[in-house]
Specification:
Length: 406
């Protein structure tokens, strides 16, 4: 049977009518772009005086061709935030704090195509920021094998500027390409993992520094002193590297118990020992009668630094990473503690961009082997309760405190 074009049109109309109520409907409109849901104003927590944030509301800024507007999902409270909250040592007040943040891109300039590792980005992707390199010729896009980033600026520790949205303790943050911002697409990580990226990067860097001594090996006896978030993350990293002979030292039984869940083979509570010689013997006993091959000193206590040498064997190694800020002078005997024992000592501070990317893999590995890293985040507060969150951090009654937006 011959079928002409009119017949075909009639057949199509009959089929469409049978699938609907008899009328041919147009296609459903495409979902509105994320930019259509952006409010005209948003809230920012601004530290306006010592130990006090005000929740301010500002107009959402224009997004330039090299910029991104990010809806904040959460941000960890760092010790640096607590120091600024309590003492303003950097002289930044008024300031929008928060640098351990993460969120979703809701609007981006036409020139933004890839993140700092060369990975494609689009509206809807989840990102974290790293540091800001304004005019540093040693930092180039997609080249992560560069120096320690401690000399750079960071979102959340910038003096107040015209954008107002330059810290992660907010509903939105403006990431500005012209500033030399570094950022990474981490859409394959859950929210808790993304909040933990920055502190984990500090420990990835410390472990990489420790490896340069040639002493930290698969079967090394390792002592980790200090079981706050930093020390606990250190233990988890060592666990993902296959190290099974790790002893945790702290004065809090709850933290020592959690250290074992993260990979420590044993623990020593310094509260149970009188004097450094007895404590050092306790550490040796935990290793079956041997001193440690390597030690990580993760507290900001000068006394703890002075003590750590007593735990380490002759020819052993030490990574000191507890003093992100000036915590005071430590007293050691250079002959007995360092020279005669031939201790190899490395310091660690902040991280490199390569450490940031390595951190993503660590977090995936930790989750794959069942390490409960998300339980490091013990307290979550909404933005409106940021003063309570900082007081909780100062009280040291939790582990990791986070601001999580609704």
């Amino acid at each position: 049977m011959a079928v002409n074009s009119n017949d075909v049109e009639q057949i199509v109309r009959q089929v469409l009518a049978s699938m609907t109520d008899g009328s041919v409907r147009s296609a459903a409109p495409a979902a509105a772009p994320a930019a259509g849901n952006i409010p005209k104003t948003a809230k920012v927590a601004v530290l306006t005086q010592l130990k006090h944030f005000d929740i301010m509301e500002y107009p959402i800024p224009e997004v330039g061709d090299d910029d991104m507007l990010v809806k904040v999902e959460g941000c960890g409270v760092c010790g640096t935030d607590a120091h600024e909250y309590k003492n303003d040592p950097f002289g930044l007040i008024p300031v929008a704090l928060g640098h351990e943040g993460t969120g979703e891109i809701v609007k981006m300039g036409k020139n933004v195509k890839k993140d700092s590792a060369g990975k494609d980005v689009k509206v809807g992707d989840k990102i974290v920021t790293c540091m800001i390199f304004k005019d540093n010729p040693d930092i180039t896009m997609y080249d992560l094998n560069k120096q320690n980033v401690g000399g750079a600026d960071v979102y959340g520790l910038l003096a107040e500027d015209a954008s107002n949205f330059n810290g992660w303790f907010a509903e939105y943050i403006l990431i500005r390409g012209a500033l030399g911002s570094t950022f990474f697409n981490v859409s394959d990580l859950d929210l808790d993992s993304r909040i933990l990226i920055e502190p984990c990067a500090v420990l990835i860097h410390a472990v990489e520094r420790a490896k340069t001594t040639g002493i930290l090996r698969f079967n090394s006896r390792v002592v980790v002193q200090g079981c706050g978030p930093i020390g606990l993350i250190c233990i988890a990293i060592l666990k993902t590297m296959g190290m099974v002979n790790v002893i945790a030292v702290d004065g809090n039984e709850q933290r020592l118990s959690f250290a074992k869940r993260l990979g420590a083979a044993g623990s020593v509570n310094f509260m149970n020992y009188k004097g450094i010689e007895n404590l050092a013997k306790g550490v040796e006993d935990a290793f079956g009668g041997h001193p440690a091959d390597f030690a990580f000193q993760c507290t900001g206590s000068p006394v703890a630094h002075a003590n750590i040498y007593k735990f380490i064997r002759n020819g052993g190694g030490l990574c000191e990473l507890g003093f992100f800020i000036n915590g005071g002078d430590a007293t050691i005997n250079p002959h007995f503690d360092l020279c005669s024992k031939e201790i190899t000592l490395v310091g660690s501070w902040v991280y490199t961009l390569r450490d940031y990317v390595t951190t993503f893999d660590f977090l995936k590995s930790a989750k794959a082997i069942g390490l409960p890293l998300s339980e490091l985040i013990t307290d979550r507060y909404p933005l409106e309760q940021i003063n309570e969150a900082l007081e909780k951090n100062l009280a040291m009654t939790g582990l990791k405190i986070a601001i999580v937006n609704k």
